[in-house]
Design goal:
By secondary structure, this protein is an alpha+beta fold. The protein is built from 28 helices and eleven strands. Helix content is 59%, strand content 7%. The strands form three sheets. Strands 1, 2, 9, 10 and 11 form a five-stranded antiparallel β-sheet that branches. A four-stranded antiparallel β-sheet has the order 4-7-3-8, sandwiched between helices. A two-stranded antiparallel sheet has the order 5-6. It has helices at 2-6, 22-32, 52-74, 91-134, 166-171, 188-199, 235-247, 259-295, 298-317, 338-352, 380-389, 400-415, 418-433, 438-441, 446-453, 455-472, 490-494, 500-505, 537-570, 575-605, 617-626, 639-670, 674-685, 689-698, 706-710, 722-746, 749-774, 778-819; strands at 10-18, 36-37, 176-184, 203-209, 214-215, 222-223, 225-233, 251-253, 319-320, 326-334, 359-363. The radius of gyration is 42 Å and the shape is extended.
Amino acid sequence: MSSLLRGEEMCLAQLFLQSGSAYDCISELGELGLAEFRDLNPSVNTFQRKHVNEIKKCEEMERILGYLLREIKKADISLPERDVNPVAPLPKHIMAIMEQLQRLEVELGEVTRNKEKLQKNLLELIEYTHMLHVTRSFVQRTCEREPLQVQYEEFPFLEKDTVMDYNSMQRLGAKLGFISGLIQRVKIEAFERMLWRVCKGYTILSYSEVEEYLEDPETGEPTKRMVFLISYWGDQIGQKVKKICDCYHCHLYPYPTSNDERNDVVEGLKTRIQDLHTVLHRTEDYLRQVSIKASESVYTWVIQVKKIKAIYYILNLCSFDVTNKCLIAEVWCPVNDIPTLRRALEDGSRKSGATVPSFVNRIPTSDTPPTLFRTNKFTSGFQNIVDAYGVGTYREVNPAPFTIITFPFLFAVMFGDLGHGLIMALFAFWMVLYENNRKLKNTRNEIWNTFFEGRYIILMMGLFSIYTGLIYNDCFSKSLNIFGSGWSVKAMFTAEVWKPEDLTGNKFLTLDPNITGVFKGPYPLGIDPIWNLASNRLTFLNSYKMKMSVILGVIHMSFGVILSTYNHLHFRKKYNLYLVFLPELLFLLCLFGYLVFMIFYKWLVFSAKDSRNAPSILIHFINMFLMQGDTVSPLYPGQAGLQVFLVVIAVLSVPVLLLGKPIYLYWVHNGSHRLGMYRGYERVRRNSEEELYLMRAHDMEEGSSHSDLSTSTEHKKEEFDFADEFLHQAIHTIEYCLGCVSNTASYLRLWALSLAHAQLSEVLWAMVMRVGLRTDTRIGVLFLVPVFGLFAVLTVSILLIMESLSAFLHALRLHWVEFQNKFYGLPVSKDILC
């Protein structure tokens, strides 16, 4: 838990790897995932590094694996359902893997191309068969017959033109020719129009639609096609017709000159189609066998190739020593894992058979280490919520441990419903039970992956919603009378306040808690179920939830301010406790903490007897700033003086917060006693270079730090800029003071969304479920089934999905803006640990 709270303590280590065992050592380190390597060759171009050829080979293998996966998916072959995590193969085995992949690629590509050719030939034969079948009706036409073409209005002169008859064309030496084929149905009108414009009546076009859908060879989709037959005069016209057919991507086939030839061609086509079906079936079987063989090992190869590529990428980050026999690498790693790192290097050296072992040395540095939080499957989701806002600086307090509780709780305050929370918790519990199911983990649906990765967050949100639903006593907009109501109607008749005729003469009656026996005591858990029947239920819940939102908001923000003390103490900035933390806490508690005090005081002091005389908290809070405490009756004796005192403390804390830190730092850097103090600091801290490094790692100061001053001989001290520090603190002061007001108001979203969820649930029950329950006939039982189905669908889609998403986003904003900005520093770029 301490690692999750503040992150792992990191150190910079130097690895000395023998050239022969470097590959195996890096492989062992990669399996552990404990180190982040630094680039020791920043000036060397990527393509000029030593292992660039090996990385190119890995990229080539990745390309082949991508092709294999696409073909396996196209063949609809399921991959083996098992989690594989093979180790990286030895360098001598890499060529064997590449040769095997290339052999599979060639074999699979050749079979696939043969299959495509066979399919294309089969499609051509089928089209040819349809063409012969459809054009059989065109054979009876004679060449002298008038063309049966549609006359278009844009060619009015066609009616006057005469077409040369057959004898005249023969005298000119022209020959009658035929062109037949298939064209897409959408192109036939433009095709016909183009033929007429170019050939000017020297062609006769006949066409008919094919009844069946034919596959498009380019897209593979079924399309409607038209069979056409073009009769033309002369070779020149024939050349023009062929060019037009090419432009419209027509499929042309030879046209038989006689019926006998036609019958012979049809019989031959039937035989060839049958043979092609047989060959294509065998080709598909063989292709499936090859794909199945590839699918058995493809995932293993994918992981191995990724690991090989990662190893060579890391090796490119290393540098050689002067003898070129040893690789030197620098890594960031957790301090507690240094022994594990050493064992990994020993294992790698032993596997490679190196005579000289590789070793690791810890080296001092003034660089800021990367941030590492160790998470498990439960805490990773909450850590991702924090990391989405930004990864904090090294060893800063991590909000994730507190987010595990506060995030689902604030969500549940807005989503409080026992029934809805139970459904959500059951759904999340089902995902937790089957979290190792490979089908659920490795889907391509991004929305499902989001739900599955956040299953523990959803589980916690559901459990907390059940709790807040019990507090609100709300289950699908209905209250549960588990312990019996604390209110009694009978006492109103016993005291003769109500009479039987009052029940018929009044639509609403008011229970008086001042009468003995009417109010027996508070409900043991949550809100009394009688409020579900009250006409002023919404007014009561408004007041209750609004005050509750303010109380939770002030507590949440105060907790964030208190957490900042851990950062101040850890980074040895004790002056921030007095100049930053104390003014912030006083400003928040003197104003809004006092508001919470008044809420609790009014709840505890004023009972039902004197509730009519209870003053308004809002009026008192406004008068507190206006210094008008005498205008209304006080809540308690001495209220006006206390309020003036609290306002004065809050106002005085603002200049302290604004000027305290800049003036103190200016005094520290420019005071007369600065030299002696830091020389004493140097004498104490220079006993050990290791201790000096550890001091620097903990002593992260804004501008220049003690550690920077103590090592002035190594690094040039940065000059202190008072204006820059003052501007930074001024922005922080304005943001914090105005933020306290806006952030407190922002927590009212807890009240607003809670009421919205309750009202939506009540409207859904009244307009859907109540309609089915009111039908008291036998048919009403059958009518209740679709009504319940509609109610369930609307509940899941609106209340469980849309409303939960809204509450999730609002809870996320409350943590990012209102809570984390009180102690969580500016986000830095996220360092990835391999």
